[in-house]
Amino acid sequence: MPLPKLPGTPVEDSRPADLVVIGGGIAGLSVAYEAIQKGRHVTILDRGPIASGMTARTTAHLMSVLDDRYYEFIALRDEAQAQLLYESLVTAIDRIEEIAGRESIECDFQRCDGYLFLGEGDTPDILEKEFDACRKIGFDGVDWEARAPMPAFDSARCLRFARQGRFHPLKYLQGLARAILTKGGVLRPYTAVDEVIQDGATVAVKTRNGQTIMARDVVCATNAPIAGRLTLQAKMAPYRTYAMAFEIAKGSVEDALYWDTLDAYHYVRLRPGDERDWLIVGGEDHKTGEADDAPARFDNLERWTKQRFGQVGAVTHTWSGQVLEPVDFAGYVGRDPDNDHIYFVTGDSGQGITNGVVAGLLIPALFDGGDHPWRALYDPARVSLKATGTFLSENSTAVKSLVEHLGGPLLDTEESLQPGQGGLVRDGVNVIAVYRDEAGTPHRVSSKCSHVWCTVHFNSFERCWDCPCHGSHFDIDGNALNAPATAPLASIDDKSGRSS
Ligand SMILES: Cc1cc2nc3c(=O)[nH]c(=O)nc-3n(C[C@H](O)[C@H](O)[C@H](O)COP(=O)(O)OP(=O)(O)OC[C@H]3O[C@@H](n4cnc5c(N)ncnc54)[C@H](O)[C@@H]3O)c2cc1C
Ligand code: FES
User: Fold this and answer.
1) Which of 223, 240, 351, 472 to mutate to test the pocket of ligand 1 (most atoms within 8 A of CB)?
2) Residues 298 and 441 in one domain
3) Who's near 40: CB < 8 A, 6+ residues apart?
């Protein structure tokens, strides 16, 4: 599955910035596209190439189904907000279809059914409660089926949801990027942003290469927010999720979306090809930094797939990525409560594609003090008192991280690290993050995340350092790969572990 090339040449632009969008994933490009329709001049900045973040790793189920369940959402928020949430997800899928048609984007967009079936050990009341909740909020396209169309497995009674969808996310973003350029937008890849500061009616965007860009409005579409209060980040928890693609005989599996009810759930879709199809299967999530056993997780995924879809062919791709789980089951999309010219899109959960498209529809409506019926639903400043328990349990990670720094599972010496391995090494009062490369050379950086202070953990599958607190990732030399961190991990002067 070769990935399409996206527009990626750095562009110099001397016009004063009107709207700066930071982040060139589904959220950033959707906001940029919609803002241009409203007459704004948009500059998009990204630390790397356009579409190189989590959108490049998505399995791209386009769902009006809520993966956290509508009955859970109604219990935490209320029925009226659940209706709005459903409406926003339906509108987002429709909008992708509309834009793909209008801009002639060949992105394999396809409507299909989605099947929700019981996970091992789960009881039928989950499906019954969800069916009732869907009917209450006007989600009429849900119905019972005797079993899901999985060749090798009797799922028992399950729910079928009509008018879900799938597409090729990178082909879609490529088309969107082209449309943005054609309409006068500016794409500036390889431009990392360090700081976003509002001063009066303008916002200063400070880049890593020393530029300051002044803008009327700024949208942080960096997946995790790089500005604003820490409380926003504390309302989400980062989870690593795993995915793999299997070759299968053409037409052997119905073109649909499949999910079980487990927490973490398995998610499956088809990618049709000319001579063969691929089955893309994901799941086996864990809290970021709390496991480093990707091979075992892929084995589990493969076993699970074969039990349900029969003898699938060769595994052609394996990958992982991160999702941010909001405590009250909806993303955070809207105005920064402290700065009226700064906007956020985050809290994507497993539905970040539709969340990004929702941002495109919602944020431009909020410019210049505007309003939108979805504003309160997605308001980044909202507090859900009923989600306090989840908030507290997710934030215990920060406490664990401190304990670990003081005396957690640390190596006495880096000598025990084999080539390709990384680990935390105690050195006096310091803890150093050390990776030994294939040539045997150690790469030493501070283990303290540059975002706040949590201890980073080695991820041997991705060969990077992951922060369990808010989901920053760093390469083996400490450079930030994923927000919210913008600065690198501090370098270590010498083996004593003093960080510079
Ligand atoms: C394996 C997997 C499966 C998934 N499956 C689904 C699914 O089936 N359906 C679904 O809806 N969602 C799914 N998701 C979630 C969804 O893919 C993501 O939530 C979504 O792509 C996030 O889009 P985004 O634009 O917010 O972030 P990203 O695509 O990560 O874009 C953010 C951009 O910001 C840039 N950036 C970050 N910091 C800075 C900085 N300081 N300066 C400049 N640029 C910066 C990054 O380089 C990046 O390009 C899945 C995710 C994963 C990992
Ligand atoms: S991401 Fe916040 S402390 Fe590391």
Assistant:
1) 223
2) no
3) 18, 19, 217, 364, 367
